[in-house]
Amino acid sequence: MTRFRIAASVSILFLTLGASAFGHAQDNQDKNKDKRQTQDKLAGAGNHPKRQTDQRGPQSVRPQNPGDHGLHPGQQKQLERSQDQERDQQRTQERAWQERRANHWEYEHRNWQQRGGYNGYRVPDDYFRDHYGNGHAFRIYGLPFIYEGGNPRFQYGGYWFTLLDPCPEMWGGRWYETDDVYVAYQGDGYYLFNRRYPSPLGIALSVSL
Questions:
Q1: Mean pLDDT throughout 91-118?
Q2: CB 182 within 8 Å of CB 193
Q3: C-alpha distances in Å from residue 115, one per residue of 6, 7, 118, 125, 187
Q4: What is the CB neighbour count within 10 angstroms for residue 206?
Q5: Given a cut of 50, is residue 88 above it in pLDDT?
């Protein structure tokens, strides 16, 4: 009888220890599971911006088409408008110089003395020496250009110059594009001279801001 009680007590003790150990192991397993879930959430939250960045990355690169210079459509349209405006200005220049081409320039032009003297705007002497004269030649083609009132006007060095005489017929058909010209003050007023065709007389110019 005593042995039976001892055996029963031992069995109960083992069952109690086993249940306790199982419960402890289960608690540890649950804690580890919760810990892993928490870590996964933290890791997921930390990686989320990176995934967004990775997703946005390829979309932010626009394939470049030949000739678009890597510009977005708005910039490309603006560039096209600028090119159209430049072509319009070039066509305006071509028409202006054709219409203002002399047949007999020696009879069709007048110098400033014949015009009664120059009374327009005068460029300050120091500025004029630094920007104009024979040592500062340029080409009219591509400069800001206006054709109004029958007189061509171009802008150079911050001033507008209006040609009051027709261009000499001996100058080439596209002199404004191919020839180096310069502005000079000679005697009684401003004139435009062409280096390709040296002459004591030039085209009378009126200066304005």
A1: 91
A2: yes
A3: 142, 141, 8, 23, 13
A4: 19
A5: yes
- Nearest to 193, CA basis, from 173, 165, 159: 165
As to burial, measured by CB atoms within 10 angstroms (0-12 exposed, 13-18 middle, 19+ buried), residue 177 is middle
Please tell me the distance from the alpha carbon of residue 130 to that of residue 166, in angstroms, as a whole number: 28
Q: Which of 62-66, 120-124, 150-154 has the lowest mean pLDDT?
A: 62-66
* In contact, 191 and 145? CB cutoff 8 Å: no
Q: Give the sheet arrangement for strand 203-208, strand by strand.
A: 145-148, 151-156, 159-163, 203-208, 189-194, 181-186
Q: Which of 2-6, 72-76, 91-95, 134-138 has the lowest mean pLDDT?
A: 72-76
Copy the structure tokens of residue 191: 């004139």
DSSP output for 166-195: PBPTTS-TTHHHHS-EEEEEETTEEEEEET
* Other residues' Cβ atoms within 10 Å of the Cβ of residue 29: 10
Cβ atoms of 165 and 108 within 8 Å: the answer is yes
Q: Which helix (H) or strand (E) holds 38?
A: helix 2-60
Cβ-contact 194, 179 below 8 angstroms:
yes
Please tell me what DSSP assigns to residue 158.
T
pTM value > 0.85: no
Amino acid at 3: R
